[in-house]
Amino acid sequence: MFAFLDTPSNHERISPSISSVHEVEPLPDGGHRAGYTYRLFGLPLRGSVEAVAHDPPHRLRFELRGGIDGEMDWRLRPDGDGTLVTCEATFTVPGGPLARLFDPVVRAYNERELDETLSRLRRSVESN
């Protein structure tokens, strides 16, 4: 499970709104830095993502900068015959003070997005 999440191209497969991951570079202490394109309500937002915590096989934390600023903190722990995966995500939507008016809509969108990402992660790992 950790190896799957540690492969940047897999995030394109599991996250419905990531339309591309590119310019992938390995980091000296593990993990990667990459460019991404994320679609929010159909609008392309481009930026970079970097692993800032890389603790195999327990944790991956990514910082996102650019079109969307934020963090995704993936935690994994054994659970019976499988792995329990949790992900906490925090994002700042571009647009300054006006964007705060849309926070509830964006929050609901991102919650659905994360639920779908976790479902796709499970299906992808179970099919291999």
TrEMBL record:
InterPro entries: Polyketide_cyclase/dehydratase, START-like_dom_sf. Residues 1-26 are annotated as: Disordered. CDD domains: SRPBCC. It comes from the Archaea. This is SRPBCC family protein.
